[in-house]
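Intended use. Records like the one below are meant for learning the mapping from a protein sequence to its folded structure. Do not use them to infer anything beyond what is encoded.
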Amino acid sequence: MITTNGAQNVTISQLTADQNGAELDGNLPGRLHEYLVDVRHSSNALVESVSTRNPYTYSIAVVASNNFCVRDNNTLVTSSGRYDQLDGIHITDSHGGVVEGNTVDQRQGADGDDGLVAQALGASVHDVSYRNNDVRGGSHGSGLQLAVGGHEIYNISVDGNRFRGSPDGVKIGYYDGGTAAVHDVAVINNEFSNLQGPWLNFHGDLGNIVVTNNVICQAGTIMIEDAPGNIVANNGTNC
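Structure written out for the chain above:
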């Protein structure tokens, strides 16, 4: 519905973006190549105080951009049996950004997928901070997925978030045969609650993964493969 499409120094704020996916049939070719709020090939872009409703694609996406901020927004999925892959805030092939203070709820309906995503398809995703977000991933997804293709994901901070009510908490997934490394990732000071599966699931080519001072309540275990520089400490249950 809204795209920056190459703009520099741009702000999208103080509005509700409703894709009307409950009334329209959004299952068309290319549905997952364009997004409800679409920051694309941009620098110094801010998405702030935006509410997204009735999506049939990703709600807020940042693609091939840098120096971005996605702050204090609200995403919601309420549809069931109409769509798939309805991610909340999806960062692809971008770097140098902050995803902060958002309320992401992909699970009022059954169609929702990951709440937050960092996806490295055509370029690395690096130097991105996810902090102080309240996230309920959809029934098909996780709270936060690091989605690896042919490029690395690194220098990622996941700090002070609340992940709740999802099949999984924070996980790594691999796509299109990708085996690139995930390294220098910090998952610290988060709350994980009411998760069906692992609150953290990291595997593959890893390095310097720090997982500390997280609080877990009614969630699965932690699953992380050994790798150089990994630190897992001071994570505990508090219900």
